[in-house]
Amino acid sequence: MPNTALLIVDDEPTGLKTLRKFFSSQYTVFAASNGQEALDILKDEDIQIIMSDQCMSPMSGLQFFSKAQKISPDSTKILFTEFTNLNLVIEAINSGLVWRYLSKPLNLKELRIVLSQAVERYQLAENNKKLTQELIETKSSLARKVEERTRALQRSGERYRQLVEQSPDGIYRSTPGGKLRMVNKTFVKLLGYDSEQEVVKLDIARDIHFSSGEFGVIKAAFKNGKEAETFVLRLKKKNGQTLWVEDHVHKIYDKNGKVAYYEGIIRDITERMEAEEQLKAVNLELNASKQQLSAAFQQLVANHQHLIENEKALRQSEELFRLIAENADALIAVLNDNGQHLYTSPSFEKLLGYKPEQLQNKLWLNLVDPDDRPQASEKFKQSLKSKKGFLLEHRMRHKNGSWRFLESTSNVICDAKGYADRFIMVSHDITKRKQTEIEFQKAKEASEAANFAKSEFLANMSHEIRTPLNGIIGYADLLFEDKLNVKQAEFVKVIQKSANYLLELINEILDLSKIESQSLELESKSFLLTDILNEKIQVVEPRISEKAVELNLEISKNTPAYLIGDPTRFAQIILNLLSNAVKFTRRGSITIAVSREKWKRTGKNIFPLQISVKDTGIGIPLKYQESIFQNFTQVDASTSKHYEGSGLGLAITKKLVELMNGTIHVESKFGKGSIFTICIPFKFDPNKKVVKKQAKLGANKAVSKNGRGPVNGGSTFGQRSDEKSSHDGQSTTTHILIAEDNAVNSELLKNILSRFDYKLTIVENGLEVLTSLEKERFDLILMDMQMPKMDGFETTKKIRGNPKYKELPIIALTAYAMIGDAEKCGEAGCTDYVTKPIDKKRFIECVQSYVKKSRPAKNQDDDYGNIEKDILQEMEQLKGYYVGNLEERFTNFQKAIKNKDFTEIGFIGHSMKGSGASYGFQEISELGSEMEEAAKNLKLPNLKQLAKHFESLLEKYRSDEALVKQKG
Length: 968
Description:
Layout: E1 5-9, H1 13-23, E2 28-32, H2 35-44, E3 49-53, H3 61-71, E4 76-81, H4 86-94, E5 100-103, H5 108-122, H6 128-137, H7 139-166, E6 170-174, E7 180-183, H8 185-191, H9 196-200, H10 204-208, H11 212-223, E8 228-236, E9 242-253, E10 259-268, H12 270-275, H13 305-327, E11 331-336, E12 341-344, H14 347-352, H15 356-359, H16 373-386, E13 391-397, E14 403-414, E15 420-429, H17 431-481, H18 486-516, E16 525-528, H19 529-545, E17 548-555, E18 562-565, H20 567-583, E19 587-596, E20 606-615, H21 637-640, H22 649-659, E21 663-669, E22 673-684, E23 695-698, E24 734-739, H23 743-753, E25 758-763, H24 766-775, E26 780-784, H25 792-800, E27 810-814, H26 821-828, E28 832-835, H27 840-850, H28 867-899, H29 902-915, H30 922-936, H31 940-958, H32 961-967
Parallel strand pairs: 1-2, 1-3, 3-4, 4-5, 17-19, 24-25, 24-26, 26-27, 27-28
Antiparallel strand pairs: 6-7, 6-10, 8-9, 9-10, 11-12, 11-15, 13-14, 14-15, 16-18, 17-23, 18-22, 19-20, 20-22, 21-22
Helix pairs in contact: 2-3, 7-13, 17-18, 17-23, 18-22, 19-20, 20-22, 24-25, 28-29, 28-31, 28-32, 29-30, 30-31
C-alpha cells in the first residue's frame, strides 16, 4: 500500500524511530514528536491513518485528535495508551475521534493488522479477501475481547439495575402505543399496586393516565421532533385516587433508527399540587446529546456480529446511566469503600456549588455537618459489614459556607468476591421541609408562650379582683344579717347583686379561657343524675318564686340513675340553661325533659342522654339563633335591654357540651318561647338501677341531695363534710388560727367567726404560723396561700412534715381561681379549698365540717338598738384602724428601700393595692399598685419618689381629726 499515508505521533524518540522504520516499507510514513508538529503536517499532507500516543506533553493524544478532526475528519485514528481504564476506553470511543486503541507495549504484529484494517475501511471492496484472512487470524484475540466486554456489560447492567431500583422516583419503559415493558419498584408503589407483574399488564392511556388524551399529548409532542419533554400529569392509583406526577419522558431508538420505546421518570408532586392554588409550570428541558455507537464493525462479516452487539449494549447501558445521573434533580454519587467520590452528578453544582471534578476522590463525609458526621460514619461502617443500604437525614455544606438539609439513601455494590466495593448515594434536598418544621416549632412555642401569658394574666386578674370583692361581699353579708330599714336593705341587696354579678363574670371568663387554651380536663366518675337536676333546680327556685312561673321536671323511663362523666361541668351546663330560661321567662312555665336520644355513635354501655329545657319566655328571633352561642353575644338591645348578662353563658355551655362529644341546638319563636336541647353520650354502669317509671315532678317536689358540694368553686381533697377534726373532744372551745396578711380580709374573717364560740388567733405570714403552732394548740388553720416571708404553700408543707400535725385540718384561702390551683393546694397538704370572695354561708359550713359544731356566741334575734349607727361606727373605726396600720407599713417600706429588699416592697405594695379601696382610700390602692410595679422592675429612684408621696398621704390622714380620733 505504497500510496497510503501514515502519520505517527510519539514523544518517545526511540519508539517513534522504530515505528517509522517498521512501516516505511509499506506506507508513506510521516513522523511527529508532539501534537503541534503533527497538526502542521496535517495542514500540508493528505493523511489516511494517524497513530498517536495518549501520554504526551503538552498536548495529550485525545487533545491532538480533537484538533486533528477539524483538519482531517476522514482519517482513521488509532490511540496508544499504557492504561486500560474502562472510563478512558468509553471516552475515546464515544468521542468519535478514535477508531481503535492499543495498549502499550505495542505488539507490532497486532499493530500491523490494525493498520491494515484501517486501510481497508477505505479500500474494503478491493481488499475483502485479505481482510477476511486477517480476521480469522485474530479470532482468538477477538474472543478474549468479547469475554472482556461481556463482563463489562454485566457490571454496567448491574449498576444500572441497582440505580433504577434504588431511585426514589418511578421509572418505566413503554412502547409508543402505550404498552408497559418495564417498571421499577417505586413506580409500582406510587400507583398502589402489589407487584411489577401486575403493573406491566396495564395500558398507560387506558389504565394509568387520568385521561387517555394525556398520553396523546406526549405522542404529539414527540411527533414534532422533540427528543425529550417534561409533563405534569394526573395518574390513576389502584384505589382510584388521583396521583399528580412530573413525568420526564425521552425516546429510545432501535438499531434501525426507529422509536422503540418511551422511557420516563415520574416524581410524586401530589402534595405540592394540593398545597398550591395553581400549578407552577416547570419545564425541564433535557439537552441530551446522544452519540451513536461507532459503526467500526458494522461492515464485518456475520460471524463477528455478536461482538458488535455486545459493545453496543455496553455503550447503551453506560449512556443510560449517564443520562439518568446527569439529568436527575437528586444528588447522585458513586463512592468507593473509603467513602471517596468516584463519580459525582452535575446536580452537585446546582445544589451545593461544587463542580463534579472538584469532588473527585474527596471524602463524602467531609461535606457532612460535624454534628451529623458521627451518625453518618457509623451508618457507613454498618453498611460495609451488612452489605445493606441505609437512609439518613443530615446537613451538607454548600460551597458558600451555608448548610442544606438532605435525605440520603444508599445502596451497596459488591465485587466478584462478595465484598462491599461501591456505594451509590442518592440525596434529595429537604431544606424547605426542615425550615417549615423549624418555623412550625417556633410558632408552636410562641403560641404556648402566649397561652401561658394569657393564663398568668387571668390568674393575676382573678386574684386582684377577688381580693376587694371578698371584702365587699363579706361585709355586705354581715350588714344584711343586721336589722335594716327597707331602704338600707335595698342598698345592701344592690351591693350583693352587683358584686355577685361581677364574680360570676370573672368565673365565666376564666372558664372560657380554660376551654379555649385546651387546659380544661374533664373528670370521669359516677354521679346520680337526679341529684344534679334537683340541686340546680333548687339554685334557681328563689328567682322563680318571684315570678308567675311553674317549673317542671320530666324523666322518661329506663333512664340510668347513675352516669359516668364530669358531674361538675355537667351541672354547670344544666345551671346555665336553667338560669337562661328563668332570666327570660316572666310568666308561664319552664320544663326540663330528660330522655334517650338515638345517638349515631353509640357503643357498649353508652347512654345518649338528651335534656331539653323548654320555656315560655320572650323567644329568640331566627337571625340570632346561631350567634347566641358566640362569645359575648346577646340578642340585640331592643329585645334584651331589660335582661342582664355577659353573653358568655351559652358560649361556655356549647363548648362544654362539645368537649363531652355532644351537641346543642335551639328551637325558638320570637314572643313564644325557646327550647334548648343538649345531647351527650354518657357511659353508665348497666348493673346499677335505672328509672323504671316515667317521672314527672314539679319543682316544689324536687328533692336535693343532703350534703355540701365544693365551696364557691373550690374542691375537696381531704376530709369530707361528715368528718370531724382529730382534735374534737379535747377542748370545750374551738381554737382557729387565721393566717392572712391583708388586714381587710383578716378583719372580715374575724367578724364572720366572732359570732360563734371560737377562739381566734391571727398572724400575717407563714413564719408566724409555725411559731404559733409551737406555743399553742389549734383545731383548724385558715391559710392564705399568698403571704410575705413564707407563703401558704411552703408553710403547709412544713406543717405536714411534722407527724404531730398530720390530722390537723388546713383550709386554703386564695383569690386565685385558675385551673390547677385547687390541685396545687391539695398537693401542698391542704384539707380543703375556699376561693375569694368568700361566700359567708358556705364558708361557715366548710369551717364547721372540720371542727366541733358551735352555736352562735349571741342570739341573732337580740335587739341591737340603732343598728345603722352601730354599723357605720364600726366601719369608721375600721378606717382609723387602717390608717394606723399604714403607719407601720410606711416604716417597713422605708426599711425595705434602705435594704433594697424589692421582694418585701412588692408584698407591701400588693397588700395596699388590694385593701386601700376597700376602706375608702383609693389613692392608697393606686400607690400600692405603683409600688408593686416599681419593685418588680427594680426601679429604686421611682420607689424613693413613691415614699415621699406615701408620707404626704399619711400627713393628710394625720391632719384629719376624725381619723385621728378613731385611730386613738
